From TrEMBL:
Residues 288-360 form the tRNA-specific 2-thiouridylase MnmA-like C-terminal domain. The lineage of its organism: Bacteria, Bacillati, Actinomycetota, Actinomycetes, Micrococcales. This is tRNA-specific 2-thiouridylase MnmA. It catalyses: S-sulfanyl-L-cysteinyl-[protein] + uridine(34) in tRNA + AH2 + ATP = 2-thiouridine(34) in tRNA + L-cysteinyl-[protein] + A + AMP + diphosphate + H(+). The gene is mnmA. The active site is at residues 101, 204.
Length: 367
């Protein structure tokens, strides 16, 4: 099979490419140039997709003896991930750019280009597993399912919950059955210089980790009130787009609570440019509504028992999900959870299997 190995320049994608080669595939390494200021070197462990990373990926490809190319997708990445990220915050939502990158870049733009050039599949260094099971419909013999990785501390099935059945059929995740320490050991044994390279983390295009500062530079400062749930003004903010539900730090409230309790952001309204804060108990919700449904296999019908996860490395919560047509999802959680914000993604699981995902459009409480 002819396979494009997406090589970020890190240790995970390096070992993934090596394992695909060991499995007998014809492998070509591809580094995605996503940063528009590509000459910038990595300033910390947060950043990625720099000239330094491209060089690291090339050296691994040379050691493996495989062809290597850099594909410039900076313009597509800016439009589909970076600009989308800013627009979502401007609308009062809290997006996950990693899900959007997997949906729009790695398993859309990259996969589409690979298929157009005659390749059969794309392999990445994500920690997840693709499992082949008998097709109950009997049409294809087997079908592919997306499952959690063996290493739960590194499991990335959440950010892959946007993949469709067709994309899964063309995807390989060679690291899903291995822990991260084992991957670093394997990289060292293979002689890869990236064996000790630190992982990138947080938001790759905000290298210093200052999301509020990044948003302020692009969306501008819009001072407005911070109020409690009864409307009393407690302070001022520089723009409602810089806050998210569940946030406690950096509020700068001028009026302390009478009972000394902690206050959290419970809602943001970008139309009125208002941030609402309140006590912790106001954060709890047990109903989640979603749109932009994506199914990693057959779409469920009616009500189904699932595990619901709303953060990349968050807890899975027992729930009942109901699919209403092609565009609406309602999730009833068994217990209330905190910090659910519009724009986040809820990924549904059946055991270790990823059922699919939805973008959260609202949340509330059952009577």
């Amino acid at each position: 099979m002819r396979v494009v190995a997406a090589m970020s320049g890190g240790v995970d994608s390096a070992v993934a490419a090596a394992r695909m080669l060991d499995a007998g595939h014809e492998v070509v390494g591809v580094h995605l140039a996503l940063a528009q200021s590509a000459a910038t070197l990595r300033e910390s462990a947060r950043g990625c997709c720099t000239i330094e990373d491209a060089g690291d990926a090339r050296r691994v490809a040379d050691r493996l003896g495989i062809p290597f190319y850099v594909w410039d997708m900076a313009e597509r990445f800016k439009a589909d991930v970076v600009d989308d990220f800013a627009a979502e915050y401007a609308a009062g939502r809290t997006p996950n750019p990693c899900l959007r990158c997997n949906e729009k870049i790695k398993f859309s733009a990259l996969l589409d280009k690979a298929l157009a050039l005659g390749f059969d599949a794309v392999a990445t260094g994500h920690y997840a597993q693709v499992v082949e099971v008998p097709d109950p419909a009997g049409r294809q013999g087997v079908r592919r399912e997306l499952h959690r990785a063996v290493d739960m501390a590194k499991d990335q099935s959440y950010v892959l919950g946007v993949l469709t059945d067709g994309q899964l059929a063309r995807a390989f995740f060679p690291l899903g059955d291995t822990t991260k320490p084992q991957i670093r050991l394997e990289a060292r044994e293979r002689g890869f210089a990236v064996a000790k390279k630190p992982d990138s983390h947080d938001i790759c295009f905000i290298a210093d980790g200052d999301t509020r500062g990044w948003l302020g530079a692009r969306l501008g400062q819009r001072p407005g009130p911070i109020v409690d749930h009864e409307g009393q003004v407690l302070g001022e903010h520089g723009g409602a787009h810089g806050y998210t539900v569940g946030q406690r730090r950096g509020l700068g409230l001028k009026v302390p609570p009478a009972d000394g309790s902690k206050r959290y952001v419970v809602a943001t309204d970008t139309r009125s440019n208002t941030v609402v804060v309140g006590p912790e108990e106001l954060l709890g919700v047990d109903v989640i509504e979603g749109d932009h449904l994506r199914w990693c296999g057959p779409a469920p019908t009616g009500e189904v028992r699932v595990g619901a996860q709303i953060r990349a490395h968050g807890q899975e919560h027992p729930a009942t999900a109901r699919v209403d047509g092609e565009h609406r999802l309602t999730v009833h959680l068994d217990e209330r959870i905190r910090g659910v914000a519009p724009g986040q993604s809820v990924v549904l699981y059946d055991g270790t299997r990823v059922v699919g995902s939805s973008t959260i459009s609202g949340s509330g409480r059952r009577a």
